[in-house]
């Protein structure tokens, strides 16, 4: 945990941890204190509430800063949030206070929890006779600038995706490891991504970090270099842990960096199901051989092996391994419930699990193992992403769904989904036009004026993005 002091008292620690001198907090009157959260706190922690909320608010605003060409020469700041551009602090503060109260609430709670852990950890460290070797390698200041790369030798345009000589790139990675100060990591990641003109989404928790960012190839290369040299990650991350694909900063609407309880939302506390007890990792080559063996069996239903897709149904709908079991779940937090309801299905089975990049399988396999019904649990190291790099024409058919503006990556010409109206092969997603839903539906690129897309089901029912629309063959339905 980066720290400039080793405080023993609560008030000193409060000042050390919660004060960010480089953030302007003059508009904090816009924030209304949450009595419900305060009511849950003990007397000592209540005193720290206002500090925690100020820090949560300031960090959230800081993540909305966008770099500009002029920012290399002057201190002018801009903020982008909810597709709006803000040119002064008052307006962005007012927007955050009125539109993102829930996020500030959860961030405040997270900071308070982390503060409690830090207090306990600090007391333990101060009473220890031996030095903690991990603590020795951590940053010694809250100033994140010491851990940013030197970009003075580069033209600013080289770092901006689409404006330099190189095409852009998207990185996907995660690293499970214990982090004592997720809030500092959050501030550092925000500053790092802004400096490199990266957009994307990064989740940080006490259990690690999970990110997908896009930018120029120079920017992503520098980002990887920084991550691999950072003391907390250099022993747990390697270059092969970063999955790359064509793209850039345009693949994400903005940069979002935040602290959460889990780096991938399974809905179960990491204290109950830890990443430290996962299934056996198989390389893409080893996994390929296992799938080949499974598919070669005459009666797969009687096999002692299950090929399990851990993703959501709208992901597996457009691409999946042959012969897989693809649960009909809308989000990963439903996976534990699916397992609980189907324990007999997994009893005495060898389970081969896979997901997009491997992260969902880490705790997903740990949860399945904890049930004690499986013979063995394996997981694909690096996920489908790494498998397709080695076996683009292997046993995975169709597209790979991604959570950005590209929606899907294509490694082969297979189309495994179809239009629910006409039955034609189709796998291109578009957003549903029903305001209440932001899930995906497929359609050909529309020529203006745009055609309105709706689910066949009433929008009051469960919106299923696996229902596809095929414009060219469903012209009657589209024009009605």
UniProtKB/TrEMBL annotation:
InterPro entries associated with the record: Rhodanese-like_dom, Rhodanese-like_dom_sf, Rhodanese_C, TrhO, TRHO_N, TSTD2_N
SUPFAM superfamilies the record matches: Rhodanese/Cell cycle control phosphatase
Pfam family, one: Rhodanese
Superkingdom of this protein's organism: Eukaryota
Residue ranges constituting the Rhodanese domain according to the UniProt record: 301-396
Protein name: Thiosulfate sulfurtransferase/rhodanese-like domain-containing protein 2
Origin species: Pongo abelii
Organism placement in taxonomy: Eukaryota, Metazoa, Chordata, Craniata, Vertebrata
């Amino acid at each position: 945990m980066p720290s400039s002091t080793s405080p023993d008292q609560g008030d000193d620690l409060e000042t050390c941890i919660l004060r960010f001198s480089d953030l302007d907090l003059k508009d904090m009157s816009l924030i209304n204190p949450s009595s419900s959260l305060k009511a849950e706190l003990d007397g000592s922690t209540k005193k720290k509430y206002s500090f925690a909320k100020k820090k949560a608010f300031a960090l959230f605003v800081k993540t909305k800063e966008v770099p500009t060409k002029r920012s290399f020469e002057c201190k002018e700041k801009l903020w982008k949030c909810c597709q709006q551009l803000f040119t002064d602090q008052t307006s962005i503060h007012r927007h955050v206070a009125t539109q993102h109260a829930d996020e500030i609430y959860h961030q405040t709670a997270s900071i308070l929890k982390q503060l409690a852990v830090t207090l306990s950890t600090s007391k333990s460290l101060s009473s220890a006779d031996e030095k903690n070797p991990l603590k020795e390698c951590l940053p010694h200041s809250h100033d994140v600038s010491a851990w940013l790369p030197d970009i003075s030798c580069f033209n600013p345009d080289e770092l901006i995706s689409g404006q330099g000589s190189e095409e852009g790139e998207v990185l996907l990675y995660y690293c499970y490891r214990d982090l004592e100060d997720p809030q500092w990591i959050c501030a550092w990641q925000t500053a790092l991504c802004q400096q490199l003109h990266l957009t994307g989404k990064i989740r940080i928790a006490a259990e690690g970090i999970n990110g997908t960012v896009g930018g120029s190839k120079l920017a992503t290369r520098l980002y990887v270099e920084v991550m691999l040299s950072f003391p907390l990650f250099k022993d747990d991350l390697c270059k092969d842990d970063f999955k790359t694909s064509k793209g850039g900063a345009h693949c994400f609407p903005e940069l979002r960096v935040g602290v959460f309880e889990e780096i991938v939302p399974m809905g179960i506390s990491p204290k109950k199901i830890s990443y430290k007890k996962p299934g056996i990792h198989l390389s893409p080559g080893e996994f390929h051989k296992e799938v080949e063996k499974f598919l070669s069996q005459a009666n797969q239903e009687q096999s002692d092996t299950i090929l399990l897709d851990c993703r959501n149904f709208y992901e597996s709908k457009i691409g999946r391994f042959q012969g897989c079991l693809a649960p009909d779940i809308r989000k990963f937090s439903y996976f534990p419930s699916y397992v609980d309801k189907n324990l007999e299905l997994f009893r005495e089975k060898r389970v081969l699990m896979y997901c997009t990049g491997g992260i969902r399988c880490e705790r997903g396999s740990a949860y399945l193992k904890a049930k004690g019904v499986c013979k063995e649990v394996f997981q694909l190291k690096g996920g489908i992403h790494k498998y397709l790099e080695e076996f683009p024409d292997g046993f995975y058919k169709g597209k790979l769904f991604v959570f950005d503006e590209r929606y899907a990556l294509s490694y082969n010409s297979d189309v495994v989904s179809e239009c629910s109206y006409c039955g034609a092969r189709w796998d291109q997603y578009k957003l549903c036009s029903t305001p209440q839903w932001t899930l995906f539906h497929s359609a050909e690129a529309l020529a203006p004026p745009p055609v309105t897309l709706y689910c066949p089901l009433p929008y009051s029912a469960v919106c299923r993005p696996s229902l596809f629309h095929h414009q060219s063959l469903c012209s009657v339905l589209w024009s009605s």
